[in-house]
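Hey, I'm writing a tutorial for new members on how sequence and structure tokens pair up, and I'd like a real worked example in the thread rather than a made-up one. If someone can provide the structure for the chain below, I'll link this post from the tutorial.
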Amino acid sequence: MIEVRPVATVDTEAMRAWYDVVLAAEAGRPLPAWPSFETAMRVWSVERDDLQDRFLVAELDGVPVGAGRLTLHLRDNTHLAVLKVFVDPPRRRGGVGTALLAALEELAAAHGRGTLLTEVTHPPGQPGAGAAFAAARGYAVAGREVLKAADLTTTADRWPGLAERAAARSEDYRLVWWTDTTPEEHLDSLAHLFSRFLDEIPLGDVDVRPQAWDADRVREGEERRRRSGIRPLTVAAVAPDGSLAGYTTLVVHAGDTHAGIESTLVLPEHRGHSLGLAMKVLLHQQLVDLVPEATLVVTGNAGVNRWMNAVNADLGYRDLEECLEVQKLLDPTPGGTP
């Protein structure tokens, strides 16, 4: 009999079993999708007031065979729950995923969430069982992305020419970069960019709504990363009036040999100056200098975002996986907005 129960992050042994199921479920992916257990626990142990994770484990005769995660945003997008279901490969097609998903959906509804969002990945052009599983349970495709990676050891020879090309079109702008702490003179401007991010990127039909950022929220995020052992790197383009016209940022978890780009944005009023290319070239160059062991950079782009896809192609990114963002709308529940 399959039993689904919650797991508390203070229970290290249970969380280790949860994590091991996740690794087994993700073993076929082209790159490790998770940091080490120690790094993950350090991240999960940092208390947050903007986001909450809930963890579930599915057991068969007392043995963990499935893992579930529910993420709730507490400041913005309080109508939304992000779900993840992982099943140990030998136990697939035996009801484990169905039991976990039902428990996650029930938990989301209990928190008043009317929109459920998850993602499934598969090799390019080869839709897998995850998409069929989601569709059969009422999840419709709302967005499509391609996950990509650039090997910095084999693409570095492109950077000088690309930087020169970008500089010829962005003469009125200058680039700045920083690691842990945003310079005070750019703090409000970066918060403005973060607030506009979800308005400006192609989201398809994904029911994600704009976030409200201010200087305090940026600083809170920086402090949380320090406590979590996450190394960030940000490159920004400064407009002639001193405001930020765009930014790109990545993170490296302790012990990882790859970095993940979190977000990139150039405001519409500043596009057409190759700022996206200029910022990403410098991002790669600085990463090599600051974290030489991180030789791979991973990012994701919507297929319709032809401008950023062109930038990534110039930088030597190759397609790894296709990612379907699938969502399900529940009936209204008290306290939630479907």
